[in-house]
Amino acid sequence: MEMEPIRMHLKAGRERVFAAWTEPELLVRWWGPGAEAEVDLRVGGRYRLSMQFDWGPMVCVGEYREIVPPERLVFTFRWEGDPSGEETLVTLTLREVEGGTELVLRHEGFADAAVAENHRAGWMDCVGRLAGMAL
Range of 41's domain? Predict the structure, then answer.
């Protein structure tokens, strides 16, 4: 199952938006509260992104499957410690448009629609912070 794709206009060039997804010092500025980021940006390389909430940490991990700067990034996504072990796939496409970049985020491989919608809500929150950040 795939969540409904997210489309957002960002007022920055593709290179800066791509960097915001791949450079740890930029990722932590928008990912979430108390964010930490580890990135091994190469096909087969792994990443680990964490957020700290009042009720505890949330950590996602995965592997980069495709890297085409500054237009496409494909990576697996799994919540660390999730007993289901569900691994999904995220595809990020960046297209140059007038006044900036159109970001399209697709996330697929969910077991059901409810889980897909929960992830969409989380992505909307994260990407909203990215859109509000000066790149």
Answer: 6-132
